[in-house]
Write a structure and sequence with these properties.
The complex is a heterodimer. By secondary structure, chain A is mainly alpha-helical. Chain A contains six helices and one strand, in the order E-H-H-H-H-H-H. Chain A has helices at residues 6-23, 28-49, 68-99, 108-112, 116-122, 128-138; one strand at residues 3-5. Mean pLDDT of chain A is 78; it is low at 125-144. Chain B is mostly helical. Among the domains of chain B are: 1-122, no CATH class; 718-755 and 775-946, no CATH class. In chain B, the strands form two sheets. A two-stranded antiparallel ribbon of chain B has the order 1-2. In chain B, strands 4-5 form a two-stranded antiparallel sheet. In chain B, a hairpin with a 4-residue loop joins strand 1 and strand 2. The radius of gyration of chain B is 41 Å and the shape is elongated. Classes of the chains: A mainly alpha, B mainly alpha. At the A-B interface, strand 1, helix 1, helix 2, helix 3 and helix 4 of A face helix 6, helix 23, helix 24, strand 3 and helix 25 of B. Chain B: This is DUF4040 domain-containing protein. Chain B: Residues 598-662 form the MrpA C-terminal/MbhD domain. Chain B: Residues 121-386 form the NADH:quinone oxidoreductase/Mrp antiporter transmembrane domain.
């Protein structure tokens, strides 16, 4: 039977909750901090699922050695998180350079797709099929 | 068979290019592969008639049991004659019709090849592939060059309808293969699974067959596709493609005709389409549309005949298939020739052509008579067998089937007469049309196809013999005693009387069209499928827009909330439902954890409330260090080391970037209710993950893996199991990871160094805000690059310290690199330390490239590291070992003694160089972003690094 460390489980939960909370923010900088915390949380979770702590996995070792597999995975994850963080940071910087802020605003183009019919009613020509049909009947319409 | 198929496709690829030089020759060349297929099939006739079935298989993906198998039995033989024979004739006809048109020739030939593959395929997946290819090529042929809207629309309708049936069919075929345990078509029919899933699968397959063969509500695409040129219609929409569904039903009927609702479903749908299609055909004035509706009707009859699954109906189905291909292709080509000669195919505008084109008229009369079921033509043989088959059918509702068959035949005779009248009769009040004479290569195929109707009708023993192997195969129900024999004369029997009555009444119906016109006008108009198609397409579009409008709000937090709630509901819900065993819970393993955990949680709490950027970054850094300490407590010194190094670097980089951004977050304050919602979602998701952690700890099983790693770490030349994992057990992973790291660094560097044309936003805290004291300027030259800085930016404290520390830190990084095999460390840690040394030097001297020798840029360093790692990974291949394999080397170096190291040390050096290079890449980008106007950057740009 494996044992669980309550303190660590609570820490992981707290890190994840804070990370998610920051991830849901509209400031890209706070999203970045959220990603950072989520990285820590995921690494701790990996380590935690490896079982009870032990001595550093150096062979030949004495006593109970810690599981090296989650450690190697977490090490990879740490370095990748570093890469992701710098990329997000560059995005924050660029957003500020272009817009003077780093707020993640709503994507209006995304929302406009849903209202395609409303705009169609308001102003013809309409969807691609219909429009192509009209030009085709007029003669000489090229294929889309 | 695969060779013939390949020949089709190869020539099809060549033909379009050839057609530019040889407009006619290309078409004749294109006719060769189908002719070869016919010749080959003719050579196989004796074998197949004896009951043999040659089979060839090409293994495609053996481990997945994907085999392309082809098999030629009686049914396939008949279909090969049909698709390849008609294909060759249509291609010869096309030489005169198209005048060039290499695209059409190539596509028609490819279609012939695909159809050949379809009717010989003995593998369910191969069958499906060919099935869909016919849809695609049909789309291309109907659409033409895409200039006409009507043709595009028709092509789209044909494609959407047939593919909409094809996809469920694929599901059905896979299900059938799973149920029967074999992907082989012949195996499936020989040992059909009669289970519940097989029933569902069968219904799905029938859906595919019905759409392909234009049955019932799916019929609309076929008349619409008549905008295609006549040879295309003659081939695809009379002889080949639409026969796909018929073929599939014929293929499966021996195994499944008596299973579930198959027989009532297929027979009633088929016969209903037979009657309604003929009724539609009777109302047309466009001769081609008349033939198209006639085709829909005949396909219904064929499906019904094959679907009945008795010996006699099977025989009738085969004969009718052959008959239909012959007469309908010939008639389509006739209409094409008429249109070519007169410019119209409207029955109301053609007049007196019977005298002007007597030969064309004569062949059309023969083909039409075959269509109406007149002796001594092949259509008559098929109709007789059909009447006989339903008269002796082994089910109670055969009377209804017989009545529907008679009614449909009556209408068929009527529209046959109407076709002849419309095409060739002299009409009162209409001047005679003056046609141009069609050429020999246009007429030849029509004559040949007509001759088929005649020869196979008079030579009925040949027809019966050819149809025999399928009908006599086990599976079809033997109905009549003695078995039905194909013949022109069976004596004065019920079927003969019904047949005669149908033909006579049908012709009478045509002759009496004027008096009956009023009554016909009051009859309900048969339903048009086109409207249904348009409504369903519009419905799908409206549903898609509705769904988009209600799900796609464009807000990132909203999307993330949905994702997180899904995490809470699905994995969290399953945790609640399954209740995995709880591990043995202890409050803590080591008391040191407690303050560290509290520190992490306190930092988290602070991050939630802090609205100041730099402060938040510092708290995040503190949380990172505390997590690193927790790693150490858990027995992961490698992890802790990397965490500390990465955390330091992150904080330094973030602070360097953030110096220029406004102090507070934007937006300043989020909306209150949203904060509460976010908090709820976040806490729920966090709790969910914590529970997951608890249960994951409890159910962990494969500890053996880790034990193996520990036991065999020594073999990799590394005593540190983590390094062994990174460099050996999971080296491919590491290689991928450093590639990703390099990618992100390049992207981040490009973004950071990009200079905006706009002036940077207000509120940036530029360097120089802090006024430096004069006494702080060093007099000695501690760092070469720092001499170039303005005095106010220099620091007496920093420069000597950096001067002393820089080599020492670099040395430490090398130590970590080499010691990683025995102690905590390794390429990652070493590279990060080297990167930090560069950052330290940058802080004092403000020149990123100063540490690199001339000509070496950070990207060269990082890319060189990746190249080295990749080379080390691939090198074992040269020695016949698998990639990434490591060996231990022993070198004798006199002053040091013997030095042993593993080759994966070089891999680690690659990692080291890459990580250091990544750090320098970021540093240089920061430098350029920083010094958009600063003196240091200008100096660095002017002067090569050194």
């Amino acid at each position: 039977m494996t044992t669980l460390d309550l303190a660590m489980a609570v820490t992981v939960g707290g890190l994840f909750a804070t990370g998610f909370f920051l991830l849901l923010d509209r400031a890209l900088m706070r999203v970045l901090l959220g990603v950072l915390l989520l990285g820590h949380a995921a690494n701790l979770l990996l380590l935690l699922s490896g079982g009870a702590p032990g001595r550093a996995p150096l062979v030949p070792g004495h006593g109970r050695l810690a599981d090296p597999l989650p450690q190697a995975m977490a090490l990879t994850a740490i370095v990748i998180t570093f890469g992701v963080t710098t990329l997000l940071l560059a995005l924050v910087h660029r957003a500020w350079q272009l817009d003077g802020h780093d707020e993640v605003r709503d994507d209006l183009e995304d929302r406009r797709i849903g209202t395609v019919h409303d705009r169609e009613d308001a102003a013809p020509p309409a969807g691609p099929g219909e429009a192509a049909g009209r030009t085709g009947q007029g003669g000489g319409g090229r294929a889309p | 068979m695969p060779a013939l198929l390949a020949a089709h496709l190869l020539v099809a690829a060549l033909v379009p290019g050839l057609a530019r030089r040889l407009p006619r020759g290309a078409w004749y060349l294109a006719a060769l592969p189908p002719l070869a297929a016919v010749a080959w099939a003719a050579a196989q006739v004796p074998l197949v008639l004896r009951g043999g079935a040659p089979r060839e298989a090409v293994t495609w993906a053996g481990t997945l049991h994907l085999v392309f198998a082809a098999r030629l039995d009686g049914l396939s033989l008949l279909m090969v004659f049909l698709v390849s024979g008609v294909g060759a004739l249509v291609l010869i006809h096309g030489a005169g019709y198209f005048h060039g048109g290499g695209r059409e020739a190539g596509l028609l030939l490819a279609f012939a090849g695909v159809m050949f593959g379809l009717v010989t395929a003995d593998d369910l997946i191969a069958l499906y592939v060919f099935w869909e290819l016919t849809s695609v090529i049909s789309f291309l042929l109907i659409a033409g060059d895409g200039r006409e809207a009507e043709r595009r629309r028709a092509a789209q309708q044909a494609l959407l309808t047939t593919v909409a049936g094809g996809l469920p069919m694929l599901f059905g075929l896979v299900l059938l293969a799973a149920e029967s345990g074999t992907p082989s078509l012949s195996g499936l029919v020989a040992d059909p699974p009669h289970t519940g899933p097989a029933l569902v699968a069968l219904l799905l397959v029938l859906l595919g067959a019905f759409t392909k063969s234009a049955q019932g509500p799916f019929a609309a695409w076929l008349p619409a596709a008549m905008v295609a040129p006549a040879p295309v219609s003659a081939y695809l929409h009379a002889a080949a493609m639409v026969k796909g569904g018929v073929y599939l039903v014929a293929r499966l009927a021996p195994g499944f005709a008596g299973f579930g609702p198959w027989r009532p479903l297929v027979v009633s749908a088929g016969l209903l389409t037979f009657v309604l299609g003929a009724w539609q055909a009777l109302r047309q004035t466009d001769l081609k549309l008349l033939l198209a509706h006639g085709t829909v009707s005949e396909l219904g009859l064929l499906l019904a005949l094959f679907g009945t699954g008795t010996r006699t109906t099977g025989l009738a189905g085969e004969e009718m298939t052959l008959a239909h291909a012959a007469f309908k292709s010939s008639l389509f080509l006739t209409v094409g020739a008429l249109e070519h000669a007169t410019g119209t195919r409207d029955a109301r505008r053609l007049s007196g052509l019977g005298r002007r084109l007597p030969w064309l008229c004569a062949t059309a009369v023969v083909s039409t008579a075959s269509m109406a079921g007149l002796p001594p033509l092949i259509g008559y043989l098929g109709k007789e067998a059909a009447y006989d088959g339903y008269a002796h059918a082994p089910f109670s509702w055969r009377g209804w089937a017989l009545a529907a068959l008679t009614l449909g035949s009556l209408l068929t005779a009527a529209y046959s007469a109407r076709f002849l009248w419309g095409a060739f009769a002299r009409k009162p009040g209409l001047a005679d049309s003056s046609p141009a004479r069609p050429g020999a290569d246009a007429l030849g195929p029509i004559w040949l196809l007509t001759a088929v109707s005649l020869v196979f009708g008079i030579g009925y023993p040949l027809t019966g013999g050819l149809a025999g192997p399928y009908a006599d195969a086990p599976g079809l129900v033997a109905d009549a005693h003695p078995p039905y024999r194909t013949a022109l004369w069976h004596g004065l029997s019920g079927p003969l009387l019904l047949s005669a009555a149908a033909v006579v009444l049908g012709i009478a119906l045509h002759l009496a069209r004027r008096p009956l016109a009023g009554a016909a006008g009051r009859l309900p108009v048969p339903p048009e499928g086109r409207r249904g198609y348009e409504l369903s397409v519009r419905g799908v579009q409206a549903a898609a827009v509705w769904l988009t409008r209600h799900t796609q709000v464009g807000s990132l937090p909203a999307y993330l909330t949905v994702l997180l709630l899904t995490v809470v509901l699905v994995p969290g819900g399953s945790l609640l439902v399954h209740r995995p065993p709880l591990p043995h819970v202890v409050p803590w393993h080591s008391p040191v954890e407690l303050p560290l955990a509290l520190l992490v949680l306190a930092c988290c709490a602070a991050l939630v409330v802090i609205r100041h950027r730099l402060t938040a970054v510092l708290f995040a850094g503190a949380a990172g260090y505390a997590v690193g300490a927790l790693f150490l407590v858990q027995g992961a010194p490698d992890l802790a080391l990397t965490q500390f190094l990465v955390e330091t670097l992150t904080v330094v980089i973030v602070v360097l970037v953030l110096r220029r951004l406004p102090a507070g977050f934007t937006p300043e304050r989020p909306h209150g209710t949203f904060v509460a919602l976010r908090a709820c979602v976040a806490v729920l998701a966090g709790a969910c993950v914590a529970c997951l952690a608890v249960s994951a700890t409890a159910v962990r099983q494969s500890l053996a893996l880790s034990r193996t790693v520990l036991e065999r770490a020594g073999e990799t030349g590394s005593h540190n199991a983590v390094t062994a994992l990174l460099l050996d057990f999971r080296a491919l992973d590491t290689l991928g990871e450093i590639s990703v790291l390099l990618g992100t660094a390049i992207a981040a560097g490009a973004l950071l160094a990009h200079r905006s044309r706009r002036p940077p936003g207000a509120g940036a805290g530029e360097a120089g805000v802090f006024r430096a004291a004069e006494w702080d300027v060093p007099r000695e030259r501690w760092l070469p690059e720092a001499d170039l800085l303005p005095g106010a930016e220099r620091s007496l404290l920093l420069e000597p310290v950096v001067r002393l520390l820089f080599p020492a830190v670099l040395l430490l990084s090398c130590h970590l690199l080499f010691a990683g095999h025995y102690r905590p460390g390794g390429g990652f840690a070493g590279g990060l330390v080297a990167g930090q040394a560069c950052f330290l030097r940058y802080l004092a001297g403000r020149r990123a490239g100063a540490v690199l020798p001339a000509g070496v840029t950070p990207r060269v360093l990082a890319g060189g590291g990746l190249a080295l790692a990749a080379a080390v990974a691939l090198a074992p291949l040269a020695f016949g070992a698998p990639p990434l394999a490591a060996t231990e080397l022993h070198l004798r170096l006199p002053p040091l003694g013997t030095v042993s190291f593993a080759t994966n040390l070089f891999f680690d050096i690659g990692v080291y160089l890459l990580v250091a290079g990544v750090c320098l890449t970021l540093l240089c980008a920061l430098d350029r972003a920083e010094g958009a106007g600063g003196a240091a950057a200008r100096l660095q740009d002017r002067e090569p690094a050194g």
